[in-house]
User: Fold these one by one.
Assistant:
Number 1:
Amino acid sequence: MLAKRILTASILAAGLIAAILLLPTGAFAGLVAFFVLLGAREWADLSGCSTAGMVGYVALVAALAAGVILAEPAPAAVAAVGAAWWLGVLGLVIAYPRGAGLWRHPAGRAAGLVALIPAWFSLVHLHGTTDGPWWVLALMFLIWGADTGAYFAGRALGRHRLAPSVSPGKTWEGAIGGLALALLAGTAVAMAAGLAIPTGFSLVAAVTVAASVVGDLGESLLKRAADRKDSGTLFPGHGGVLDRVDSLLAATPVFVLGLEVVA
């Protein structure tokens, strides 16, 4: 199983890095939108939609995403909406199991709109800025570093559970190890790319990593409500789209908003 996970992760990472660095922003937006819609289908399924409901939900996400692009809102405002939602998810994680039923309620389906669309818009916006592809790559290495560091530090040192009722495998030691590796990896990419790193970047990166953990825990709440281990079966050894992008959904608007603030 571990070998399958590593192989799948390597293929996905290589393809994503190539897409980030080689595709123009319009094509990148379309590619990301494709996976966002797959994620929307999974969210609808986990939140209790019927087959027809899942089709309608995906269509609604597509329509709203197109509407956001056409409306040309302030990127910071869209990112703030997304960041605020994930702050609310942190409250749900802390309060669990209170509020667990919300995920299978229409409110849970509405939450998917706020989770998916601001993240997609923020990622596309970031890609289209000056040196945008490299900033996106730095964000990805923050998330990958956090995930990898948390896994190995948690296995080696993990003693104190981070959120035992939501995700028993996560520990505070793993989270700290993930933060350390994430800061090293993200900063290394930014420096290697010659990016103009703003004062306060380390703080933005740290808060982004914290948000990525909340994203992971938030998806765990959604899956617990649906009594599922994975959000889907698209990626061998890794589950579905939401299983792969849960951290990214939360981290992206926080990262973009943070860069807007410290720029």
Number 2:
Amino acid sequence: MRRTSGIVAGLMLLAPLAVSVPASAAPALASAAKGVTAKKAPFATFKVHNVVYPKKVKAGAKITYYFEITNVGPHSADYYYIGGILPKGIISTLKWNGPKNTTCTWEGNEFWCWPPPILYPNPEEDWQTDTTWLTIQVTLNKKTRGTATAKLGGITFDVPTGAGDLDEKRLRELGIKGWIYTKTVKTQIVAPSVKKKKSTKQVYVPPPPPPPKPDRAPTRNRKKGT
């Protein structure tokens, strides 16, 4: 288990949080959702949008991702995750922020959170919402070069009414399907420029050459009357 911490507005660090995985959460959700056929339409379809991230950063710098997922239907989503696959070459701590009472887990290069709100397509009541959001901030290792690639989005499971408390194993036994919706983002890592140190070594400067010798001896002046 890797370490995460929550962040509030302005990316202020809270106390480090060691996140535990609930029984209903898979340690590798993206892998669990792979290979799903499209024979049956999902209960809820996610749109990944409003993705904000830097296009270029220096080696060892922080990368902050912000994105939203919206349920476009046809049914509400109450068994879903928001997060994604983080870039390689980052340190083992990160910061995150999301809606109140959001909890997260980080296993391998996958970081997933489960926010509390149910996502309703085309909300009809003021208390309903169709969108949730997440901010993730990672720090690159100083030696990481090339391109930092992340996949951000959400996973939704077709959990029938009354099966929301079942664990992952039981859901698999029942043949519950999962769909993953992600958007790939890439950040170029620029090596910092190396400043040349000013040389403190003294440079030898030769003395000026001696004046040239005259071609002949100077004429001797004699005082008149002597």
Number 3:
Amino acid sequence: MILASDYDGTLKINNVISDSDRQAIEQFRSQGNKFGIVTGRSIGMIRNELKLMQLNYDFIIGGNGAVIADENGQVIRQNNIELEDAMQLINYVCHDKNNMIGVSNGVEFGNIQDGCINEEHNTNDLIETEMVNGYDIICSNKINSFYFKAETLYKTKQMYEVCKEMLKGRVNFHFNNGIIDATAYDIDKKTGVLKLKELFDGDIHVIGDGYNDLPMIEYFGGYTLTHADEVIKEKASQVFDNIAQCIQTIQINKK
């Protein structure tokens, strides 16, 4: 079996991975199953943190499906955004100096414009990470994903709708937890998890608690947690209290 889990808000809650979840994952992997993370973060945003958290894994799917790393955190697959599309997005977001936008090459990440953010909606701290100059990533023409937001949540939602229309059919946008992520077109967590079929054998299970998890939850008949929004619970096949309960249930069902 393969279990792909969202990270922030699903496995890491209030900046902690519980001992029970960590132990359940180790027991799951010890039986020959595969466990990994599927996240909106770049690989560099999470790789060192997982090491610090003492969490072993078989894969990381980062950038909402745009990049895949192996059990050592080394990139093995990625889909990048075309430079022309990237520049159009940057020019639009940066027209307002209060907007924040950052970019990733799949591993490294850095801001292009820091902005002036009055509302904080993302409560997950980045641990053991170091930013680079975002312009260096742009100049390298290896643009894997963007993350950006406006000064307020209301303005961020407006910007999300504009960007979807402006780059329709060219770039995918993922709105979650007050932040907009951008990836190459037709890339999301579902497509990232589907790539696992080329790497591993076994039935695929997924779990997540955010709106950017919906593509994989709907496609794989996936799971969510009790604290998720009702919209996500309605789409999930089962709702669990935690990852440990999820693992216990899918192991029992396999028997």
Number 4:
Amino acid sequence: MIALLHEPYLPLIRRALLAVTPRGIARALDVGCGDGAKTHWLRECCTPDGLIIGLERDINVLGSAQGISQIVGDAINLPFADQTIDVIWCIAALALFSQPQQALAEMRRVLHPRGTLILLTAGEYWVRLRKHPLTVVQTLPPDIPLPPADGLGEEWTRLLRTAGFAQPQVRAYLLNGVAPAQAALLDSADLAAYINHTPFVSPIAEPEVHPVLFIVKA
């Protein structure tokens, strides 16, 4: 998974994260921030005096990201008061925590009632790619607020519902260099409705393993 979080996919990852992140954030937290290389992207979504915090368990991993308050801490015991964080990012880190469910419970505890949690994960998945009409694909925006077809990514929405998050939403991006990266993973009926297009039926390929990026928002 780690290789999927670097070049040449960084521009897509950055855009996908920012597409679902609210603006005007006063307090943002990146849980499991590593060296903070992606944490600073949050600056685009914060108020001018907004606070960005990067939390990492391993002090040796923390970098020197300017404008970010970096602290050493554990995701299963977040050192913050209840309901004090507006937005939480957790980028490819949840599966690395010793107790993922406890980490989610902690994120929910510190998140403001109107706050937003955004998880990112990536890996190899069996998928059935759709071949939509080129005339449709060429009109699509780079980020599409639709879930993937065939229930892809449902394990993440179930995980968040179990943790108490009411309405998790998932987006999936195919990491093959073809834009828009979501298109081949979307159901044709959903896509036609989204773009207000006459219904069409796209050919569906046999299942194959492909690298997929998931963004889950709750």
